[in-house]
Write a structure and sequence with these properties.
about 40% helix; about 170 residues; single chain
């Protein structure tokens, strides 16, 4: 690990601190937040308390960045079927079958792994541990009662991490 990654990971895992990682493109910001998230999920699994419900929200300014992160998560989490993840954006299909077709059409070279939740229905029924979205969809989700499983109720009591990628691009209220 680079020094900034190690410092960020230690502050998050050992000291329970909030962090801001500001460093150049390709310098490993993702590892600085992903390692603490995965550590938390693996510890929950060890305790037998890894139930459906969002633990980490990864917020991106554009779908392209969320899609890049999905590719990374597929590789990383393919040997870890107990950890679920899903992208909930305007591109996410409602029903499982149409989501599967969309995935095959748009990501023909990517493997389909069972812990990636592809449809909105799947994610509402069993919220993923890691939820990727963009700021426009996050606002939409917060205003829609039918997706309250992410933010309200028994499956919503596990929130731990909020990652705001490219924070310098956000402005407004």
């Amino acid at each position: 690990l680079y020094q900034h990654q190690e410092e960020a990971i230690r502050k998050t895992i050992i000291h329970g601190r909030n962090i801001v990682v500001a460093t150049g493109t390709g310098s490993g910001k993702t590892e600085a937040f992903l390692i603490p998230i995965l550590n938390h999920l693996f510890r929950e699994e060890e305790r037998g308390s890894l139930l459906p419900g969002v633990r980490a929200l990864l917020l991106y300014p554009m779908n392209a960045l969320a899609n890049d992160q999905l590719k990374r998560l597929r590789k990383l989490l393919s040997p870890c079927p107990q950890i679920t993840f899903g992208r909930y954006t305007g591109e996410t299909k409602e029903k499982e079958r149409e989501a599967e077709e969309h995935f095959r059409k748009n990501f023909p070279e990517e493997p389909r792994i069972p812990n990636e939740l592809l449809s909105r229905d799947e994610m509402r029924d069993n919220p993923p541990h890691i939820l990727l979205t963009n700021y426009a969809m996050l606002e939409y989700l917060l205003l829609r009662p039918q997706v309250c499983e992410f933010f309200d109720g028994e499956k919503a009591r596990h929130w731990r991490f909020i990652v705001i990628d490219e924070a310098h691009t956000y402005d407004g209220a």
